[in-house]
TrEMBL record:
GO annotation (BP), single: regulation of DNA-templated transcription
Species of origin: Candidatus Giovannonibacteria bacterium GW2011_GWA1_44_25
InterPro entries linked: DNA-bd_dom_put_sf (IPR009061), MerR-type_HTH_dom (IPR000551)
GO MF term set: DNA binding
Phylogenetic classification of the source organism: Bacteria, Candidatus Giovannoniibacteriota
HTH merR-type domain segment(s): 7-44
Domain of life: Bacteria
Name of the protein this chain belongs to: HTH merR-type domain-containing protein
Pfam name, any one: MerR
Length: 72
């Protein structure tokens, strides 16, 4: 994985929903997550989050956001 990925908790905070909502959207194929190759956790790219926020008519996340990155 060469891109930086957000955990489900980080993505949920940026979007303003709960992690359970993201899991439900993923299961319903409404907003699918990538899966980490080692632990199979759901992860999201910042581009995915920004695309969803744009689609929903919401502002982009702040540029000064500090993101913890999952190591490959």
């Amino acid at each position: 994985m060469s891109k930086k990925y957000l955990t489900i908790n980080q993505a949920a905070k940026l979007i303003g929903v709960t992690p359970l909502t993201l899991r439900n959207w993923d299961n319903a194929r409404k907003f699918q997550a990538f899966r980490h190759p080692i632990n199979n956790y759901r992860v999201y790219t910042l581009d995915q989050i920004e695309g969803l926020l744009k689609k929903l008519g919401m502002p982009k996340p702040a540029k000064k956001l500090v993101i913890q990155v999952l190591e490959d």
